[in-house]
Amino acid sequence: MKKQSNDSNKSVRVLKKSVPHRTVGGVNVQHFNSSAVEYESYNERNTISLLSLCHDVVGIRSQPIIFNYLDDLGKHRKHIPDFEVTLDSGELLYLEVKAIEDLLSPVNTEKYARIAKEYLRQNFNFRFLTNIQIESQPVFDVVKLLNRYINSPVSDECLKLSQKVLDSDAMTIRNFMKEAQLDLREVYTLIAKRHI
């Protein structure tokens, strides 16, 4: 069910919550100062977790636009990318998140190759992200760990002290904890919130 939203911050498609095999929900990432970023699969949820820890990502929107294009036969087609990612440079990146098996199936290979060519032709920055890339180790385990702390509070005093200690020189986490008098939870929170 597709529906154009009147609010530019909302998805252009209403997520289907009644389909039993779908995993749907939303993730609230405080440092993006936005409403929850919605997902329709585990891969999309893991993408949100990964992107929320990237220092150059300042915003994520789910299903942000309806992209119109003509296929090889001249027929009008539509594509809704899974995510619009705003980088700190102001550049927008559109992402399609797929399981590698799905992306490489013969019917989808042709379909998504056409879509990617059209995004390129219309000067949109478009990329595919697969479960293989998302779940790459050891990054995947670190992302899962740090996302437990992404919305944890951090005091101004803790932030100032940690920045003062880190201004002196690079150091191990153990030495940083000792110098800044922080516990491991506070260090993970500072990393997850992209303060260090």
Average residue-wise pLDDT: 87
Number of β-strand runs: 8
The SSE string, one letter per element, is EEHEEEEEHHEHHHHH
Strand proportion: 15-25%
Counting helices, strands and paired strands, the structural category is alpha+beta
- Based on CA atoms alone, the radius of gyration comes out at 20 Å
What overall geometry do the principal axes of the alpha carbons give?
elongated
- Helix fraction? 25-40%
For the biggest β-sheet, the strand order reads 3-6-7-8
Account of the 3D structure:
This protein is α+β, with helices and mostly antiparallel strands and about 200 residues long. It has helices at about 40-50, 100-105, 105-120, 130-135, 140-145, 155-170, 175-180, 185-190, and strands spanning about 25, 35-40, 55-60, 65-70, 75-80, 85, 90-100, 125-130. The strands form three sheets. A four-stranded mixed sheet has the order 3-6-7-8. A hairpin with a 4-residue loop joins β6 (about 85) and β7 (about 90-100). It starts with about 25 loop residues before the first strand and ends with a helix.
Q: Care to give the gist of this entry?
A:
The protein has 196 residues and is α+β, with helices and mostly antiparallel strands. Helix content is 37%, strand content 19%.
Q: Layout of helices and strands, plus pairs?
A:
Elements: E1 25-27, E2 37-39, H1 42-51, E3 57-62, E4 67-70, E5 76-79, E6 83-87, E7 92-98, H2 100-103, H3 106-121, E8 126-130, H4 131-134, H5 139-146, H6 156-168, H7 173-180, H8 184-192
Parallel strand pairs: 7-8
Antiparallel strand pairs: 1-2, 3-6, 4-5, 6-7
